[in-house]
Specification:
Helix content is about 85%, strand content about 0%. The chain contains seven helices and no strands. The longest helix is centred in the C-terminal third of the chain and has 49 residues. This is DUF1804 family protein. Pfam families: DUF1804. It comes from Denitromonas halophila.
Length: about 170
Amino acid sequence: MAHGEETRRAVRAAFVFDQLGLEVAAAKEGVPVATARRWKSEAKKAGDDWDKARGAQMIAGGGLEEVMRQTLGVIVRQTQATMDAIEAADDMPAAAKVQALASLADSYNKLMAASRRLMPQTDQLGVAMGVIKLLLDYVRKHHPQHGAAVAAVLEPFGEEVVRTYG
């Protein structure tokens, strides 16, 4: 059974904006999972990476920032706990303590550097997707009669934004 462009967009929207798994998004729209996977793969080859768009949408909604804050909090606490344990280890030679602390500091610095390198690209896409969502919410609130028309334009425009910034 052939599915139209509207169904493909609905699966993409459920995956990207509703943050549903691909299998759930496909089931929601009555599409076989294999078809949804093919659409996702074809879109990626055409420059519309659904995973990047989904990540950007998560950032636009604040989800990734919260996860990053929690993760960094855990890492900082664990780093401090490990440093305390090394310092308190009376049976550990001083040279081994220095080596363990240096390794811990190196790992921590590499993690922080990787995080900073990855975030600019995703952040730029997240801001763009956030503006699109903000505009759509504004139109729905202040000009509800135009909501459907604006949504019809903004969903494919979101794909263009992903191709440009993703």
